[in-house]
Amino acid sequence: MNDKDVIFSLIMATYNRKDDVDKFILSLLDQDFDLNKVELIIIDQNGENFLAEIIRKYNKLVTIKHIRSNVLGSSINRNIGIEQAKGLIIAFPDDDCTFYHDTLSEVYKIFSERNNIATVLGQIYDKASGKKIIRNWPDSIKKITKKNFFHLYSCITVFTKTKDVFFDPELGPSTMFGAYEDADYILSLVKKNKDSFYYFPMVKVNHPQLNMSKMNLKKISNYGLGFGAFCRKNISLNVFILYIGVIVYHLALFLVSMLKLDFVKVNKRYISITSRLVGFFRFGNL
């Protein structure tokens, strides 16, 4: 495949998932878009032969760039993928998500018909149940701005022509500030693209529903540290209002849990609050 023919570079940083990677590739093979114009870049953080069977099974059906990485972390490994990408449009599917048969064709149609668009954002949606996943995604097209991005963002549904914006390696899994690298990346795209970043509800990706109530304490802490660090790094009036609002929200739930004598939730809310404070005040000061 000639580099000039590549339309989509799909960058997947993966660790400790095999069956899910297989399912994603199967969903890719089901696309109604020409796979000769697609490359899947797998940044493999596993042991040497962990994904070998999957790569052998599919590498004649779709172009797969298999890159081994000895460093853990989604941010640094997605950046490796960005540097290797040959496609006009890059995207970041999770290793446990799947595309619908028309995901890529819908994205390509938008870019083809709207020359002013630099970045497209879609929704996470379960067609089988008819349910929106993670958030109540709008049913109409929205311009993404600094004011609304936080309520509309998802890295697994972003498709962008912008290849000079990277993830912050200080944020995300396997770092002290273990989350919100995706929010930081999306905000960077908003700043770069300005009037050319839009949400389109017809672009859909599937992902398992997240059960926030079943998060362990370590994950709760990672999310809090990441959120605090994200807010500190990108501090502005809008971000500061967001930060205070989230702290007040968790404080209110902390007090409700206290009144109910639900000490398991009291502990979780306490960690949610303190980790956001620690992330905010420690980011940039290590």
Describe it for me?
By secondary structure, this protein is α/β, with parallel strands linked by helices. The protein has two domains: 3-206, Spore Coat Polysaccharide Biosynthesis Protein SpsA, Chain A, CATH 3.90.550.10; 212-282. It is built from eight helices and ten strands. It has helices at 19-29, 52-58, 74-84, 103-113, 181-193, 217-233, 237-259, 263-282; strands at residues 8-14, 38-44, 63-68, 89-91, 98-99, 119-126, 131-132, 142-143, 158-160, 197-206. Strands 1, 2, 3, 4, 5, 6, 7, 8, 9 and 10 form a ten-stranded mixed β-sheet that branches. Strand 1, helix 1 (19-29) and strand 2 form a beta-alpha-beta unit. Helix 6 runs antiparallel to helix 7 (237-259), helix 6 runs parallel beside helix 8 and helix 7 (237-259) runs antiparallel to helix 8 (263-282). The longest helix has 23 residues, at 237-259. It is globular and about 60 Å long. The chain starts with 7 loop residues before the first strand and ends with a helix. The model has no long low-confidence stretch (mean pLDDT 95).
